[in-house]
Design the sequence.
């Protein structure tokens, strides 16, 4: 059967690629992305086994029961379901799904909190807000702001607080962590640790209009001391960010990398706590401002 | 924006748009001249445009679906051409955004939906031994409303500008703050109008299947495709009102400046995403469940076996349809709703793999001990099994909420849903079309050309979409109109483009096959050319207007097979006068007013809206007082027809 050859060839190609390529998502540089890469590998292997079982069964059946091989007088039997066969074909998928569910639930809880070993650290807070088609990074503690690039210290839990000045975008640094949406009326929280110094690719993954393709940013992870001197450097050299200047930056378009002292949080705070648009007064502000950690 | 600017023809200064306008005008002139020259206006009006016959309506749906397949397919080729090499300038960002939005909308709403509804129209009444659907006039109206929606959307390409916010049309990007041109208005109204048609189809088919089955066809003796159709239509009736309301809210936001989905004054952009997918996820299963029904029918027929595990097949369809309403959050695990919510929806999502797995094994066991013939419909069904298993597997991978943070919005996702929709839905529709072609037109499609098409489509599919799994894992987001050389996406993107071309060649073979077979295929093929098992094969090919001269009496889900093999008496009784509904031009006129209503609404031309609305009300009033008792086909006439077609069965 020609079919068989074709599919075997495809599988060879697929496994070849998986083994040979350094795909970003499967080349993690921090504990969060590492967890996700493990989950992905577990699911890939499970699913390859399932697919191979189906393929082998199909191939054998097609080969054995094809009309050209059979007696022209052969009358296939009438077969209703069989209780034991059905228990197997229900049971096996349930076991597989149960296994993957456990993996999924455990891992989703892990990546939604600070990574192991960094739980007790005071996180470095960076607000990452998107506007068409840029990323603004505010460091409230350090009182500086950058556009389209972000420096983070290595081996330190960084809490990105994500929101948008307009369209929904999705904050993604494939080698460090999975995506999370940045939206205009609530703030999302994403914990990231980079364990290796280096430059990482980051982008908005959620389509948001004409400038979407170029809606990227750079992440640079530095050892703590270099990070501190970078901060100091900027505090000494950069221009202050004014409200007028920030309004200008929000205009749709692309900007290169920019650096400022001061942050826009002072005059245009993130939609969290009492600044959330869905915060309707004091009585329920507890629920609305509830910080997830 | 100035009033006249909205009407700009074409919306952008682009030589390709001018070329399309010329092509559209020339094609329209050619059609009008051709029909006039061959004096076919009367034939077209009397036999097709005004018909209430479920078979002809089904065929019109399928022809429209094929046209839309080529429209959406041309978009696909343009997209893959644009991304075949890095930094390509064939399309600019805005044009690319319009193209992928149109591709998605056309393929889901106007190709796949039309194809499954067309297939259900043709097959359901025949397979339950009925003479038509429960409400034939409503059925014609459903078709014309769908057609109106399709034409409105296609008009956007040349008048005013296409929607450009993706087929998911997320707010606030699609809202008045960020999208000022009329594109999204077209989206709202085209889908609203065709959605009304779909909703009426749902009601119509539920009534048909509940009330009009042949004597003896108890629920658990219905052929599996009928079960699939029944559940699908129930899902339509449950899911489509959500889309209707969401589209209405979007329309109010865009055209009357309300704040449902805006970023200010309490608007919630995420509410659109929720409403869209509360409809959108069941929609995916609305497409795939009839496809499962077709595969079950074809695999049983070409294995010469009864369907293995009929009861568990029915149960798994029910389970899939119920679960499909409980998984919508998996389309935005990354929205930040927290680990607990994501865990719950992750589990419900993966649970769908259980009933789907049951179906895969049942198909395999149907072939087991069978006598498998490799006719083209069967080839598609066989290719479906491993390809759908891969697509389903990557679906489970996507369903793992944590890992989805890495797959979301990437080409991995794009590869996945094409991997389920093409081998799942599109292969089923092609297989079904080839399978039912003799029943529709009285001749078979050529097998040799059919196999050429099959291999091109299958290999083209694999080449086009498997590479996307890898570029997705390598960080390529979907909907990017270009990428740089440094990303390393170029080799795989080029392979993907080549695959797209093979797919296109396959579809050309498919069309050429229709042309070739029309000219060369023999016409005396009898009622049952495939040696199939269900009732539709018990009547003539092509099927006479009244379907069955004598209504069949049924005792099992494969009554026709028992009639052939086990001397079961299918037709008890004798020929009598048959009561049939009259043709009517009312539906097409009604839909015409809807077209005007939609068009004027899109452009805020309120005088036009009011006039069209009065027309719609007028049509409803006319229909309310119209006396139409249908007509009878007399016994003698039926006997003469039956004799001519080869004797009553």
Sequence:
């Amino acid at each position: 059967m020609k079919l068989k050859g074709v599919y075997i060839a495809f599988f060879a190609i697929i496994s070849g690629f998986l083994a040979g390529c350094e795909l970003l998502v499967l080349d993690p540089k921090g504990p969060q992305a590492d967890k996700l890469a493990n989950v992905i590998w577990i699911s890939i292997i499970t699913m390859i086994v399932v697919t191979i079982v189906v393929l082998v069964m199909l191939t054998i059946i097609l080969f054995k029961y094809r009309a050209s091989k059979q007696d022209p007088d052969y009358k296939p039997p009438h077969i209703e379901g069989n209780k034991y066969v059905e228990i197997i074909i229900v049971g096996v998928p349930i076991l597989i799904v149960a296994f993957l569910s456990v993996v999924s639930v455990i891992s989703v809880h892990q990546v939604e909190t600070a990574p192991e070993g960094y739980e007790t650290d005071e996180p470095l807070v960076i607000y990452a807000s998107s506007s068409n088609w840029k990323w603004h990074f505010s460091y409230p503690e350090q009182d500086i702001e950058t556009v389209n690039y972000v420096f983070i210290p290595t081996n330190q839990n960084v809490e990105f607080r994500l929101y948008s000045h307009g369209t929904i975008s999705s904050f993604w640094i494939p080698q460090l962590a999975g995506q999370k949406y940045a939206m205009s009326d609530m703030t999302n929280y994403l914990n990231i640790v980079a364990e290796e110094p280096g430059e990482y690719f980051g982008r908005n993954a959620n389509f948001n209009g004409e400038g979407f393709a170029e809606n990227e940013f750079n992440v640079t992870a530095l050892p703590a001391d270099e990070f501190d001197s970078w901060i100091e450097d900027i505090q000494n050299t950069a221009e202050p960010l004014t409200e007028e200047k920030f309004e200008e930056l929000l205009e749709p378009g692309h900007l290169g990398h920019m650096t400022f002292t001061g942050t826009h949080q002072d005059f245009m705070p993130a939609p969290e706590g009492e600044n959330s648009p869905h915060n309707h007064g004091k009585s329920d502000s507890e629920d609305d401002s509830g910080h997830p950690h | 924006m100035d009033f006249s600017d909205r009407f700009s023809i074409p919306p952008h200064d682009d030589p390709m748009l001018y070329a399309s306008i010329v092509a559209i005008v020339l094609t329209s002139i050619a059609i009008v001249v051709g029909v006039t020259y061959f004096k076919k206006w009367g034939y077209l009006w009397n036999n097709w445009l005004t018909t209430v016959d479920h078979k002809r309506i089904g065929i019109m749906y399928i022809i429209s679906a094929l046209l839309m397949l080529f429209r959406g397919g041309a978009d696909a080729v343009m997209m893959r051409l644009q991304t075949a090499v890095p930094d390509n300038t064939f399309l600019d960002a805005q044009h690319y955004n319009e193209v992928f939005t149109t591709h998605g909308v056309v393929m889901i709403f106007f190709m796949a939906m039309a194809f499954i509804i067309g297939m259900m129209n043709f097959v359901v009444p025949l397979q339950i031994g009925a003479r038509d659907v429960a409400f034939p006039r409503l059925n014609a109206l459903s078709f014309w409303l769908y057609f109106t929606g399709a034409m409105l959307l296609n008009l956007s390409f040349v008048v005013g500008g296409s929607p450009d916010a993706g087929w998911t049309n997320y707010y606030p990007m699609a809202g008045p703050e960020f999208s000022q041109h009329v594109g999204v208005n077209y989206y709202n109204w085209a889908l609203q109008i065709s959605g009304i048609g779909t909703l009426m189809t749902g009601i119509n088919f539920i009534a048909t299947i509940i009330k009009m089955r042949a004597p003896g066809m108890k629920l658990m003796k219905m052929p599996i495709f009928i079960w699939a159709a029944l559940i699908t239509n129930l899902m339509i009736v449950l899911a489509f009102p959500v889309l209707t309301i969401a589209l209405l809210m979007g329309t109010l936001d865009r055209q009357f400046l309300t704040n449902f989905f805006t970023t200010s004054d309490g608007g919630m952009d995420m509410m659109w995403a929720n409403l869209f997918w509360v409809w959108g996820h069941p929609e995916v299963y609305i497409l795939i469940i009839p496809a499962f029904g077709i595969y079950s029918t074809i695999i049983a027929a070409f294995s010469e076996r009864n369907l293995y595990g009929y009861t568990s097949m029915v149960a798994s369809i029910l389970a899939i349809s119920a679960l499909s309403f409980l998984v919508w959050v998996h389309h935005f695990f990354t929205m930040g709703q927290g680990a607990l919510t994501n865990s719950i929806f992750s589990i419900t999502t993966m649970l769908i793999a259980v009933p789907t797995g049951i179906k895969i094994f049942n198909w395999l066991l149907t072939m087991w001990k069978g006598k498998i013939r490799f006719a083209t419909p069967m080839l598609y069904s066989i290719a479906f099994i491993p390809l759908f298993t891969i697509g389903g597997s990557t679906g489970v991978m996507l369903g793992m909420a944590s890992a989805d943070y890495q797959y979301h919005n990437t080409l991995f996702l794009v590869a996945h849903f094409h991997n389920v929709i093409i081998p799942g839905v599109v292969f089923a529709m092609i297989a079904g079309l080839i399978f039912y072609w003799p029943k529709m037109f009285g001749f078979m499609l050529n097998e040799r050309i059919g196999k050429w098409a099959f291999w091109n489509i299958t290999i083209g599919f694999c080449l086009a979409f498997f590479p996307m799994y890898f570029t997705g894992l390598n960080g390529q987001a979907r909907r990017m109109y270009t990428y740089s050389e440094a990303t390393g996406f170029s080799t795989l993107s080029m392979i993907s483009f080549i695959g797209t071309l093979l797919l296109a060649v396959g579809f050309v073979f498919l069309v050429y096959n229709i042309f070739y077979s029309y000219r060369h295929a023999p016409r005396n093929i009898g009622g049952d050319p495939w040696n199939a098992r269900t009732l539709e094969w018990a009547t003539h090919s092509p099927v006479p207007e009244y379907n069955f001269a004598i209504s069949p009496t049924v005792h099992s889900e494969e009554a026709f097979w028992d009639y052939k093999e086990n001397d079961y008496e299918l037709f008890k009784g004798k020929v009598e006068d048959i009561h049939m509904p009259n043709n009517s031009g009312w539906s097409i006129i009604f839909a015409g007013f809807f077209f005007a209503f939609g068009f004027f609404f899109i452009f805020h031309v309120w005088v036009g809206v009011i006039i069209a609305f009065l027309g719609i009300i007028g049509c409803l009033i006319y229909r309310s007082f119209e006396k139409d008792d249908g007509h009878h086909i007399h016994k003698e006439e039926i006997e003469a027809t039956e004799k001519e077609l080869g004797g009553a069965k």
Notes: Chain A has two domains: 2-66+83-111, 124-279. Chain A has six helices and twelve strands. The two ends of chain A are 58 Å apart (CA to CA).
